[in-house]
Hints:
Helix 3 packs antiparallel against helix 11, helix 4 (69-79) runs antiparallel to helix 5 and helix 6 runs parallel beside helix 7. The chain is globular. The strands form three sheets. A six-stranded mixed sheet has the order 3-4-12-9-10-11, with helices on both faces. A five-stranded parallel sheet has the order 8-5-6-7-13, with helices on both faces. It has a two-stranded antiparallel ribbon with strand order 1-2. It has 20 helices and 13 strands. 51% of the residues are buried. By secondary structure, the chain is an alpha/beta fold. Helices cover 45% and strands 15% of the residues. The longest helix is centred in the N-terminal third of the chain and has 19 residues, at 107-125. The structure holds pyridoxal-5'-phosphate. The site of pyridoxal-5'-phosphate has 16 residues, from helix 12. Pyridoxal-5'-phosphate binds at residues 105, 107, 140, 217, 251-257, 305-306, 360, 383-384. Belongs to the threonine synthase family. This is Threonine synthase. GO terms for molecular function: pyridoxal phosphate binding; threonine synthase activity. InterPro entries: Ser/Thr_deHydtase_PyrdxlP-BS (IPR000634), Thr_synth_N (IPR029144), Thr_synth_N_sf (IPR037158), Thr_synthase-like (IPR004450), Threonine_Synthase (IPR051166), TrpB-like_PALP (IPR001926), TrpB-like_PALP_sf (IPR036052).
Amino acid sequence: MKYYSTNHTALEASLEKAVIKGLAEDRGLYMPSRLEKLSPTFFEQIEDLSFQEIAYNIANVFFGEDVAPETLKKIVYDTLSFDTPLKKIDRNIYALELFHGPTLAFKDVGARFMARLLQYEIHKERKTGDVNVLVATSGDTGSAVANGFLGVEGINVFVLYPKGKVSKIQECQFTTLGKNITALEIDGTFDDCQRLVKSAFMDVELNNHMRLTSANSINIARFLPQAFYYFHAYAQLKRIGILEPPVFSVPSGNFGNITAGIFGHRMGLPVKRFIAANNANDVFFKYLQTGKYEPKPSLQTLANAMDVGAPSNFARIIDIYKGSWDAIRTDVSGASYNDAAIRQTMQTCYAQVGYILDPHGACGYRALKEQLHDGETGIFLETAHPAKFKEKVDEILSTDIKIPERLQAFMSGKRQTIRLSADYEALKELLMRKS
Ligand SMILES: *Cc1c(COP(=O)(O)O)cnc(C)c1O
């Protein structure tokens, strides 16, 4: 498979290049050149397949030309060692729980898959020297990437996070790992962390000295696997006798998750429509209303993993729909909720049906409540376990939710971090010394 850039000036790239480089030379995002439809037989039998079998079928469409079947199967099966169950919440509303992986958030799927595929592609390349993954995080990305790459030979991970702005639970998930994971506490904001990572990628001297790549959802290896669980959700609906295409409501920040769902739809997955549920960062919601895309600085909200003012995968959505605002609006509607609405939704849902939503999932649930028509079935993606946001959730619902054992194990580990100023030279000096 070849991958083209959303900016359409860079040459098409091989899978190897797209995965190792992450971003095209013209700063565009890579897109697969073909999206083949899965066979009717696949959809007829989907309810009899396991999650791993379903995922392998999808992975084969994207990666089958470039990765040998046994290897691809191993990568898929190793990634999906956990379930993504569908739970009935309301009359016609289901939660797709994506938080049963190692760090209890949906990013585990893409991060693990990318770690395994990157390792395979690096090995094939036969170049010497480790590959270094730099990732800036406001919490969830860092933990998923660090755990996905933990112990993967030939790859070092540097997680940059802003001092004092990441929750204790999140911080433990990438500072206690050791091995090939280095946590860097930056004396600055999340924007500073992102700026530092960008500077490093553009620094010719540094790139001649060491091999660098990123693990954000711009990377196709992290982004495409997110299509897997949409198919799995559909299979689970069929299993309980619901045959009409569902409405998917996706809590969105950088729009990687929902874009993967749209890819799935293009590959034949029956979907009635999508809802992009935003918090107060409403750039996409405004775009749907006005046709104008106006990125702005992000606002801090209760659903902080969605605090994005310039969603990077917007370029992919525009590319899929060839820039047609009307075509996008036919498939995707929007929603935007401020913190007061998020709180109220969590409280109402807990009081009425006893389900504990995390602040991100709350946006997805609320959008279905407001936009689902009679006779439709809705699925919202519950993107993180509420215990990841225990302090906020307990305060909002007056609960004392239990922290799953997996999360507790991180919290008893020894935290190790290197403190750095937000000055680029400090980061560069450290990276030059470490490699
Ligand atoms: C990253 C994240 C999101 C947003 O996903 P995008 O792919 O960036 O749109 C939503 N919820 C949680 C819990 C996240 O960690």
